[in-house]
Amino acid sequence: MNQRNVIHGIIAALCLLIAFLFIRMRDNRELASVRNHHNSDEIRKSYRDGSASIYKRLISSESTDESILDLLKSAWVQYAPTDAHEDLVKITVDRLGCSLDMVNLLQFLSNDSDPHIRMGYRLLSEEIRSRLERGYVEMRNQVVSLPSVGVLRDSPKYYKVRWAEFAGFGCDLDAFSRFHSSIDDSQAARSAAFGQALRISDQDPYSALTLAVKNLGENGETYRMEGGATDGAERIFSQIIDNAQSDLDIAKLISLLPLDHRSKSKGLVDGFSSAIEKWSKTDFDAANRFVLDHHNFLASDVIGPLVWANIETSGLAVDFDWWKSLPQGELFDSAMRERTMYMQAGFSDEAPLPGNTEDKLIALKEMNDLKNLSSSIKSEWIREEVAMKIDSRIQQLQQVIND
Question: In terms of Cα–Cα distance, which of 199, 182, 197 is closest to 140?
Answer without folding.
Answer: 182
